[in-house]
Amino acid sequence: MALLDVKDLFVSYGPLVAVQGISFQVRKGQVVSLLGSNGAGKTTTLRAISGTITLVGGKVTGGSISFEGQEITKVSPHRRVRMGISLVPEGRKIFHRLTVYENLVVGGYTVKDLEDRLEFVYQLFPILKERRNQIAGSLSGGEQQMLAIARGLMSNPKLLLLDEPSLGLAPRVVDILYDAISKINEERTTVLVVEQHVKKALTHSHYIYVIQTGRIIASGEPEEVLSMDMVKAYLG
Amino acid sequence: MRDAKRMLLTTLVGAAFLLLIDNFASGYHKYLIELMGIYAILTVSLGLTNGFTDVFSLGHVGFMAVGAYTAALLTFPLEKRPSYFPELPDILKGAYLPYPAALIVGGLLAAAIALVIGFPVLRLRGHYLAVATLGFMAVVYSLLLNLEPITRGALGISGIPEYTNIWWIYLWLGITIYVTWRIVDSYHGRAMIAIREDSTAAQSLGIDTFRYRLMAFVIGAFFAGVAGGLYAHLITLIDPRAFSFVLTFNVIIMLIVGGMYTISGAWLGAVLFTVLMQVLKPVEESTGLYGLVELIFSALLVAIMIYKPRGILEEELPAVVRRWLKAGEESKRS
Amino acid sequence: MVSATYILDLFVGSFVLGSMYALLAIGMSIIYGILRLINFAHGAMLMVGAYFYIMFLAMGLDPITSLPLSMALGAVLGVAIDFFAYRPLRGGPELSMLITSLGVYIFLENLVRIIATPQPRVFPLPEFLKGVYRYGDFSVRVIEIFTIISTLVLFAALVLFFTKTKVGIAMRATADDLEASVLMGIDANRIIMIAFALASMVAALTGFLWGGMYGQVDPTTGFMPGVKAFIAAVVGGIGSLTGSVLGGYILGYAEIYSVGLLPPEYSGLRDGISFLILIIILLIRPYGLFGREVERV
Fold first, then answer.
1. What are phi and psi of A11, to 5 degrees?
2. Residue closest to A58 by CA, chosen among A76, A71, A45, A68
3. Which domain holds residue B52?
4. Do the Cβ atoms of C185 and A78 come within 8 Å?
5. Which tens digit of pLDDT belongs to each residue from C165-215?
6. Is residue C295 part of a domain?
7. Do B167 and B18 touch, CB atoms closer than 8 A?
């Protein structure tokens, strides 16, 4: 059974239908990538899974999302975090006015054993330990992304959703991030990444879905997908 | 052409009504209808500022006060001034204007002040603007209380000549509605609505939001000032308390309950308010539950905000009536 | 003639008034930070809190029990108002909550007017706060000292709450970015509830202090302090705790000194002066002295 099972999902913002009946699965222990260009509906899909779609004026209008076999479209977003779903939003969205440490504390709002989690994320990103008393807004872009991922891991999620983690970052930083993602996955956290950055996603994923204008147009293992002509044309 | 005919017709019907009221209504009812007209001028002009742009001003009554005191001073009998205002500054000792001119000057002064404070204040956004305009109202109130040589402080000015009658009020209401309608229905008006619905979109369309905000604010202030002058010469006695937060709140209730985004909604709010007030006041007095009227009005405001945030009239009355007529015909046919 | 004692009197008077403004401003700031709502009804919570205290006394309770009870009841009322009036409006235009809060203010004022009559009520100060200390010409009332100390203690307690406890930090996070805080598993409605409870509780305490200082309350008591607090919060930088407290003191000092040192015939300009300060501050520093730009488009 898949950890996450999205079936025939429709999402709209008012009259605008952003996601038009997509279906995909994420198996436990895998890293799965959703690839697609800007406006393909990737971020909307992640928002639907995390439940925050309603906060930005959108709505799931059809289909279902199951997590560990349980239908979750009606579950409020903060409860989904307790169930084990954690989204690292696009553009990082860290708490700019809080310190690095405070960001992590808030990330661990739902867990009892903060110390344990702190140790785990500090090991993953040692720079955050150094900077723990710094105001998060003053970190560099790469450090902010590390903080955003670390904060997302504080709740000890079963499924980590990453929205464009490499966006606007230097290649060296992207390497660090993807190494961390592999490490997170080794610790048995399932990961669903949304990316425009095709190369990184291909080398680090077990399975790939390609979205175009709200629909899945291709799926398979990385080599398989890469060999498809239409995908080559679309992703460039 | 069609518009001109329709306007002529509306004016004639309105005038006929007023003629009937003027000749047959009791003094008390006439007074109510006069008051209603003044409220309507206030709400329609506030609607121009608050409804058609994204400005939410709480200072409207401040402009009304400016107009009221200005017009009252200008028409105040010259011979009574030395004894009544012993410390009046020299320039005001002999400044006299006939009533219609005094109304306009009161409006213009309010508009001029709106222009001056609008430059800084209208650059603020949403909440901050509401507070700053409330601040303007409080400053006006404070000045009315303290500029005793001109305003007579808490005593207020009494013995203002009773020039205002139903015709003057409804003439000015007509002008207010006409001007507002022309603005809303123009290219500029559509620009203002664009600002209201989406400030950033308006900016990206290259609309100079500040200019339209300022225009709506200044024109709104002008009519509030005129309403003040009409009010002063109707009641014949004004004091600072008449222009306090209570009136500010009442005008806002009328506007929001009636419908902030339409002209018909604005004056409908004024009508409803006056009628409800007359129904509820006796209840309040006979039960001794002072504050009941305000309690009901405030509950009404909160309920409207929750269940019908755009007010009773979300579209202009003619459009609503036309739709009703159409629905009636269709049901007859079927 | 302006004597040293007179200046000292003004100093204490400003400190006391500033403290009360600061307490109210803190509440406004907490609510604004999370909801972006300028809560006009906050001043009414001061008045209602004072009436709650009088009510508990009338029920035969002693002052030491009545004060915490009135604060608790204030908190409950605050939460109820949020639930019935503001919660249905979440996600709507920002002005609809502001307008609603105007309505809530008028509602509370007139509800108290109906229940407790419009006549001012004597506010009975507990025995242990009634005394006066004298040093030559200079004198200070115990309630004044109590007001200053309780404000400072409360401020310190709130700073600790917001920096050291998980819920406090979560509240700041919610104020910083509501959507992101939901992603952390925070129930925003619960955080908003806590904010209203906290703010209303502090407002009820301020009501006690206000009543104690001036000896009486009536249904309109809350209006001006509420508006002033809100100016204080904006002057200090709304959303910032320290800013609100400093804003409260700035306003307290500006008012008392301008009235105390100007010729008596200008004393009526006091309220005008507060707004003048507000308008000037908004023009030079639109987000207050200690505020950062909080509005994001």
1. -135, 135
2. A45
3. 2-333
4. yes
5. 999 999 999 999 988 999 999 999 999 999 999 999 999 999 999 999 999
6. no
7. yes
pLDDT for the residue C253: 92
In a domain, C296, yes or no: no
Token output for B255: 């506007």
Would you call A90 an interface residue with chain C, using a CB distance cutoff of 8 Å? no
pLDDT on residue A87: 95
Q: Most C CBs within 10 Å: which of A97, A161, A162, as the mutation test of the C interface? A: A97
Question: CA B106 to CA B89: how far, in whole Å?
Answer: 18
Are the CB atoms for C188 and C82 separated by under 8 Å?
Answer: no
Q: How many domains does chain C contain in total?
A: 1
Residues A201-218: b if buried by 16+ CB within 10 A, e if exposed: bbebbbbbbbbbebebbb
Neighbouring chains of B at 3+ CB pairs under 8 Å are C
Q: Which residues of B touch C230 (CB under 8 A)?
A: 131
Determine the Cα–Cα distance for residues C68 and B64; give it in Å rounded to an integer.
Answer: 45
Q: Cβ separation of C178 and A55 shorter than 8 Å?
A: yes
- Helical axes C223-236 vs C42-58, angle rounded to 10°: 130
Interface test with chain C among B60, B113, B139, B307, by most C beta carbons within 10 Å = B139
A172 and A186 Cβ atoms separated by less than 8 Å: no
Residue C81 falls within a domain, yes or no?
Answer: yes
pLDDT tens per residue, range A69-113: 999 999 999 999 999 999 999 887 899 999 999 999 999 999 988
* CATH code of C122's domain: 1.10.3470
Q: How many domains does chain B have?
A: 1
**What does the alpha-carbon distance between residue C53 and residue B99 come to, in Å, rounded to a whole number?**
54
pLDDT tens figures, C62-79? 999 999 999 999 999 999
**Pairing relation of β-strands A159-163 and A70-71?**
unpaired
Give CA–CA dist B76/C72, Å, rounded.
Answer: 56
Instruction: Please list every residue in chain C whose beta carbon sits closer than 8 Å to the beta carbon of residue B309.
Output: 89, 92-93, 96
Q: At residue B37, what are phi and psi to the nearest 5 degrees? A: -60, -40
Size of interface B-C (CB pairs under 8 A): 132
**B110 Cα to chain C: minimum distance (Å):** 18
Question: How does DSSP assign chain A, residue by residue?
Answer: --SEEEEEEEEEETTEEEEEEEEEEE-TT-EEEEE--TTSSHHHHHHHHHTGGGGGTEEEEEEEEEETTEE-TTS-HHHHHHHTEEEE-TT----TTSBHHHHHHHHTTT-S-HHHHHHHHHHH-HHHHHTTTSBGGGS-HHHHHHHHHHHHHTT--SEEEEE-TTTT--HHHHHHHHHHHHHHHHTT-EEEEEES-HHHHHHH-SEEEEEETTEEEEEE-HHHHHH-HHHHHHH-
Flag whether C89 is in a domain. yes
User: How does strand A85-88 pair with strand C132-135?
Assistant: unpaired
Q: Nearest by CB to A52, from C172, C173, C183: name it.
A: C183
Length of chain B (residues): 334
The encoded tokens of residue B171 equal 């003439």
Q: What is the pLDDT of residues A3-61, one digit of tens each?
A: 999 999 999 988 888 889 999 999 999 999 998 887 778 889 999 999 999 888 888 99
Look up the pTM and report it: 0.88
Q: Give residue C200's domain range.
A: 4-284
Distance of CA C4 to the CA centre of its chain: 31
CB contact under 8 A, B142 and C272: yes
Find the CB nearest B132 among C117, C270, C282: C282
Evaluate whether C273 touches C258 at the Cβ level (below 8 Å): yes
Chain C stretch 254-273, residues whose beta carbon is closer than 8 A to a beta carbon of chain B: 265-266, 268-272
Q: Which residue of B has its CA nearest to C32?
A: B127
Q: Which C residues in the span 61-120 are in contact with B, Cβ-Cβ below 8 Å?
A: 85, 88-89, 92-96, 98-100, 102-107, 109-111, 113-114, 117-118
ipTM: 0.90
